Each structure stands twice: as C-alpha cells, then as structure tokens.
Amino acid sequence: MKSKAFALSALVLLAACGDDKITTPTPPTEPLPSIAGSYSTQWLTQFIRPHDGYSGSWTCSGNLTIVQSPGASSFTGFGVVSAPCPAVSFDLVGKVQAGGAISFDTGGPRAGAGPCPAPPVSTYTGTLSKDARQISARSTKTLNCPGEGEGEYDFTQIVTAYKNF
Known about the structure:
This protein has one helix at about 1-15, and strands at about 35-50, 55-65, 75-80, 90-95, 100-105, 120-130, 135-145, 150-165. The radius of gyration is 28 Å and the shape is elongated. The relative contact order is 0.19. It is mostly beta strands. A hairpin with a 5-residue loop joins strand 7 (about 135-145) and strand 8 (about 150-165). The mean pLDDT is about 85. It has one helix and eight strands. It has a single domain, classed as Lipocalin. Strands 1-2-3-4-5-6-7-8 form an eight-stranded antiparallel beta barrel.
C-alpha cells in the first residue's frame, strides 16, 4: 500500500513540475512575392548642381525584365531605357522581401544633352504593390560632370514599373 501511495505522490509531483513558460505558436511566414516578368517603366531623373543651385529633371520610358526562381528572394534581369532618352541597357540584380520591400542594383538613364556621363550602377530601394503589379524605387548618387562651370551633380532617379500581362 505504501508503494502505491508513494508512486501516486511521485506522479502528482512530476505532473506539477511542468514548464512554466508560455509558448505562443510561431505565425506562418508570409510568402515571398513573385515579381518575375516584363515591366513597362518610366524613369524620372532629377538633378541639382550644389555649387550654384542649377536643377532640372527629365523622364524616359523603358522596360525591366526580371527573372526570379519560385520562392526565391533574389532576382536578376536587365533594364532598357528608350526614347526620348539615349538608348541604353544594363544588368539588374536584387532582392524582394515578404511584405513587398524591394532593392536592386542597376544603371539608369543618361541625359539627352549636357556633359554628364551615364550614371554608375547604384542601389534602388522601394516597394512592390500588394498585387505585385507595380514597382516604385528610388536611387541617389553624385556624379562629377566635366566641363567649365560643371562639376558635381546630385542625381535622384525614380523608376516606376508596371507589369505587362
């Protein structure tokens, strides 16, 4: 009888020694957006020459082509700038996050006139619309443009891309 009572009290004691930590279930991870495809783009370039305040902007049309493996956060592709700007193309490599944050490294449009070279590859950051049909991203960079009275320019480039279906 004593052994049964001892075993019962041991079981009660063991049951009382549970984990006091409250655990919450891990929420399911949000899937990564699929952005693969072809996009029509508008490239807006704004500039200012800090030493004298000279500023302006221009807009170019173009395309982005994005390749992304299913479920992958990284992507590659290329961009093309077309009329009314000088034609140019460049590679593109980037990442997309759950929730739609996007960043990519690529080139950008060159001015149709003036002494400034084509902008170097830079990082664009922005967002993807909830329906994954529109990309809006921005890049800033400084260029040294040759010529008397020219010098350093600050460029802001904004690309808005609409998925082609």
